[in-house]
Amino acid sequence: MELRETVRRRRMVRHYDPARPVPVEAVEAVVTAALRAPSAGHAQGVSFLVLGEPAQVERFWAATAPATGHDQWLRGMRTAPVLILVWTSEAAYLDRYARPDKGWDDRDPARWSAPYWYVDAGMASMSALLTAVDHELGACFFGVPPERHCDVRAAFGVPEDQLSVGAISLGYPPPGLRHRPPRTPRRDRAERVHLGRWPEQG
Protein backbone atom coordinates (compact mmCIF):
# COMPACT_ATOMS: atom_id res chain seq x y z
CA MET A 1 0.00 0.00 0.00
CA GLU A 2 1.26 3.51 -0.81
CA LEU A 3 2.35 5.42 2.29
CA ARG A 4 -0.08 8.28 1.64
CA GLU A 5 -2.95 5.80 1.41
CA THR A 6 -1.86 4.05 4.61
CA VAL A 7 -1.83 7.37 6.47
CA ARG A 8 -5.20 8.36 5.02
CA ARG A 9 -6.85 5.07 6.00
CA ARG A 10 -5.52 4.93 9.54
CA ARG A 11 -8.36 4.99 12.06
CA MET A 12 -8.75 3.92 15.66
CA VAL A 13 -10.80 0.71 15.35
CA ARG A 14 -12.74 -0.15 18.50
CA HIS A 15 -14.56 -3.32 17.44
CA TYR A 16 -13.18 -6.50 15.86
CA ASP A 17 -14.31 -9.67 14.17
CA PRO A 18 -13.68 -12.36 16.83
CA ALA A 19 -14.04 -15.11 14.22
CA ARG A 20 -10.89 -14.00 12.35
CA PRO A 21 -7.60 -14.66 14.14
CA VAL A 22 -4.65 -12.45 13.30
CA PRO A 23 -1.86 -14.34 11.50
CA VAL A 24 1.36 -14.62 13.46
CA GLU A 25 3.20 -13.10 10.50
CA ALA A 26 1.06 -9.96 10.67
CA VAL A 27 1.66 -9.54 14.40
CA GLU A 28 5.38 -9.99 13.81
CA ALA A 29 5.33 -7.34 11.08
CA VAL A 30 3.59 -4.85 13.37
CA VAL A 31 6.06 -5.43 16.20
CA THR A 32 9.05 -5.31 13.85
CA ALA A 33 7.92 -1.94 12.52
CA ALA A 34 7.57 -0.64 16.07
CA LEU A 35 11.12 -1.76 16.85
CA ARG A 36 12.36 0.21 13.83
CA ALA A 37 10.98 3.51 15.13
CA PRO A 38 13.42 6.33 16.07
CA SER A 39 15.14 6.04 19.44
CA ALA A 40 16.90 8.94 21.18
CA GLY A 41 20.59 8.09 21.46
CA HIS A 42 19.64 4.64 20.18
CA ALA A 43 18.69 3.95 23.80
CA GLN A 44 16.05 1.41 22.68
CA GLY A 45 14.18 1.72 25.95
CA VAL A 46 10.72 0.95 24.53
CA SER A 47 9.50 -2.65 24.97
CA PHE A 48 6.41 -4.59 23.93
CA LEU A 49 4.41 -7.34 25.62
CA VAL A 50 2.43 -9.26 23.00
CA LEU A 51 -0.72 -11.01 24.19
CA GLY A 52 -1.96 -13.31 21.45
CA GLU A 53 -3.65 -16.13 23.35
CA PRO A 54 -7.28 -15.78 24.52
CA ALA A 55 -6.32 -16.54 28.13
CA GLN A 56 -3.64 -13.83 28.03
CA VAL A 57 -6.01 -11.25 26.59
CA GLU A 58 -8.65 -12.10 29.19
CA ARG A 59 -6.07 -11.80 31.96
CA PHE A 60 -5.29 -8.28 30.77
CA TRP A 61 -8.93 -7.25 30.83
CA ALA A 62 -9.39 -8.84 34.24
CA ALA A 63 -6.48 -6.76 35.53
CA THR A 64 -7.61 -3.48 33.97
CA ALA A 65 -11.39 -3.40 33.65
CA PRO A 66 -14.17 -3.64 36.23
CA ALA A 67 -16.12 -6.88 36.31
CA THR A 68 -19.42 -5.00 35.95
CA GLY A 69 -20.65 -1.91 34.18
CA HIS A 70 -18.97 -2.58 30.82
CA ASP A 71 -19.74 0.24 28.42
CA GLN A 72 -20.03 -0.02 24.65
CA TRP A 73 -16.39 1.00 24.13
CA LEU A 74 -15.12 -1.72 26.43
CA ARG A 75 -17.38 -4.38 24.96
CA GLY A 76 -16.01 -3.57 21.51
CA MET A 77 -12.39 -3.48 22.61
CA ARG A 78 -12.68 -6.83 24.33
CA THR A 79 -13.32 -8.44 20.93
CA ALA A 80 -9.70 -7.78 19.87
CA PRO A 81 -7.84 -11.10 19.51
CA VAL A 82 -4.39 -9.51 20.04
CA LEU A 83 -3.12 -6.85 22.44
CA ILE A 84 0.33 -5.27 22.35
CA LEU A 85 1.26 -3.54 25.60
CA VAL A 86 3.72 -0.67 25.18
CA TRP A 87 6.28 -0.07 27.95
CA THR A 88 9.18 2.31 28.32
CA SER A 89 12.11 2.72 30.69
CA GLU A 90 13.17 6.16 31.86
CA ALA A 91 16.29 4.59 33.38
CA ALA A 92 17.39 3.23 29.98
CA TYR A 93 17.49 6.77 28.58
CA LEU A 94 19.17 8.33 31.62
CA ASP A 95 21.79 5.57 31.56
CA ARG A 96 22.39 5.99 27.83
CA TYR A 97 22.95 9.74 28.09
CA ALA A 98 25.30 9.30 31.05
CA ARG A 99 27.77 7.47 28.80
CA PRO A 100 30.95 9.30 27.67
CA ASP A 101 29.67 10.13 24.18
CA LYS A 102 26.74 12.04 25.69
CA GLY A 103 28.23 13.14 28.99
CA TRP A 104 25.18 13.89 31.15
CA ASP A 105 26.71 12.00 34.06
CA ASP A 106 24.28 13.35 36.66
CA ARG A 107 21.34 11.46 35.04
CA ASP A 108 19.07 14.44 35.74
CA PRO A 109 15.71 14.12 33.89
CA ALA A 110 15.42 17.93 33.97
CA ARG A 111 18.07 18.10 31.22
CA TRP A 112 15.61 16.69 28.72
CA SER A 113 13.51 19.12 26.68
CA ALA A 114 10.79 16.45 26.75
CA PRO A 115 10.66 12.94 28.26
CA TYR A 116 11.94 11.11 25.21
CA TRP A 117 11.19 7.72 26.77
CA TYR A 118 7.54 8.60 26.13
CA VAL A 119 8.22 10.39 22.83
CA ASP A 120 9.92 7.28 21.45
CA ALA A 121 7.06 5.10 22.68
CA GLY A 122 4.63 7.29 20.74
CA MET A 123 6.72 6.99 17.59
CA ALA A 124 6.90 3.23 17.96
CA SER A 125 3.15 3.03 18.52
CA MET A 126 2.43 5.04 15.38
CA SER A 127 4.73 2.76 13.37
CA ALA A 128 2.72 -0.18 14.68
CA LEU A 129 -0.63 1.46 13.84
CA LEU A 130 0.41 2.26 10.27
CA THR A 131 1.78 -1.23 9.71
CA ALA A 132 -1.51 -2.68 10.92
CA VAL A 133 -3.30 -0.72 8.18
CA ASP A 134 -0.77 -1.98 5.63
CA HIS A 135 -1.78 -5.54 6.60
CA GLU A 136 -5.52 -4.76 6.32
CA LEU A 137 -5.89 -4.90 10.11
CA GLY A 138 -7.70 -2.61 12.48
CA ALA A 139 -5.92 -1.22 15.52
CA CYS A 140 -6.47 1.19 18.38
CA PHE A 141 -4.07 2.76 20.86
CA PHE A 142 -5.53 3.24 24.32
CA GLY A 143 -4.30 3.96 27.81
CA VAL A 144 -4.24 1.72 30.86
CA PRO A 145 -5.76 3.35 33.99
CA PRO A 146 -2.87 4.43 36.27
CA GLU A 147 -4.41 2.68 39.25
CA ARG A 148 -4.24 -0.61 37.31
CA HIS A 149 -0.57 -0.46 36.27
CA CYS A 150 0.55 -2.52 39.25
CA ASP A 151 -2.13 -5.12 38.55
CA VAL A 152 -0.92 -5.49 34.95
CA ARG A 153 2.69 -5.78 36.09
CA ALA A 154 1.72 -8.48 38.58
CA ALA A 155 -0.40 -10.37 36.03
CA PHE A 156 2.43 -10.61 33.49
CA GLY A 157 5.63 -10.35 35.54
CA VAL A 158 6.57 -6.91 34.21
CA PRO A 159 9.53 -5.36 36.08
CA GLU A 160 8.92 -2.31 38.25
CA ASP A 161 11.18 -0.08 36.14
CA GLN A 162 8.89 -0.46 33.14
CA LEU A 163 6.46 2.44 32.71
CA SER A 164 3.11 1.69 31.10
CA VAL A 165 2.52 3.87 28.04
CA GLY A 166 -0.60 2.17 26.75
CA ALA A 167 -1.82 -0.76 24.69
CA ILE A 168 -2.62 -1.44 21.05
CA SER A 169 -5.59 -3.64 20.19
CA LEU A 170 -5.22 -5.55 16.95
CA GLY A 171 -7.61 -7.53 14.79
CA TYR A 172 -9.74 -7.54 11.67
CA PRO A 173 -12.61 -5.05 11.59
CA PRO A 174 -16.02 -6.72 11.35
CA PRO A 175 -17.57 -6.87 7.87
CA GLY A 176 -19.35 -3.70 6.90
CA LEU A 177 -17.83 -1.63 9.70
CA ARG A 178 -18.52 2.04 9.15
CA HIS A 179 -16.34 4.60 10.85
CA ARG A 180 -18.45 7.14 12.63
CA PRO A 181 -17.38 10.77 12.36
CA PRO A 182 -15.35 11.95 15.35
CA ARG A 183 -17.29 13.47 18.23
CA THR A 184 -14.99 16.47 18.03
CA PRO A 185 -14.61 17.76 14.46
CA ARG A 186 -11.16 18.30 13.04
CA ARG A 187 -9.78 21.72 13.77
CA ASP A 188 -9.12 23.91 10.76
CA ARG A 189 -5.65 23.45 9.28
CA ALA A 190 -4.90 27.16 9.74
CA GLU A 191 -5.35 26.74 13.49
CA ARG A 192 -2.66 24.07 13.65
CA VAL A 193 -0.15 24.80 10.89
CA HIS A 194 1.72 28.11 11.07
CA LEU A 195 4.23 29.26 8.45
CA GLY A 196 7.14 31.36 9.58
CA ARG A 197 5.67 32.52 12.88
CA TRP A 198 2.71 32.01 15.17
CA PRO A 199 -0.10 34.38 14.22
CA GLU A 200 -1.08 37.11 16.64
CA GLN A 201 -4.14 36.39 18.74
CA GLY A 202 -7.20 38.57 18.98
Describe the structure.
- A four-stranded antiparallel beta sheet has the order 1-2-4-3.
- The N and C termini lie far apart (44 Å).
- α2 (24-35) packs antiparallel against α6 (116-134).
- It is globular.
- The chain has eight helices and four strands.
- The protein has helices spanning 3-9, 24-35, 54-64, 72-77, 90-96, 116-134, 149-156, 189-192, and strands at residues 46-51, 82-88, 138-142, 163-171.
- It has 202 residues and is α+β, with helices and mostly antiparallel strands.
- The longest helix is centred in the middle third of the chain and has 19 residues, at 116-134.
- It has one domain: NADH Oxidase (3-Layer(aba) Sandwich).
Keywords:
about 200 residues, NADH Oxidase, about 35% helix
CATH topology category name: NADH Oxidase
Structural class computed from helices and strand pairing: alpha+beta
Q: Note the main sheet.
A: 4 strands, antiparallel
**The level-1 CATH class:** Alpha Beta
Helix and strand arrangement:
Elements lengths: L2 H7 L14 H12 L10 E6 L2 H11 L7 H6 L4 E7 L1 H7 L19 H19 L3 E5 L6 H8 L6 E9 L17 H4 L10
Antiparallel strand pairs: 1-2, 2-4, 3-4
Summarize the structure.
This protein has eight helices and four strands; from the N terminus they run ααβααβααβαβα. The protein has 202 residues and is of the alpha+beta class.
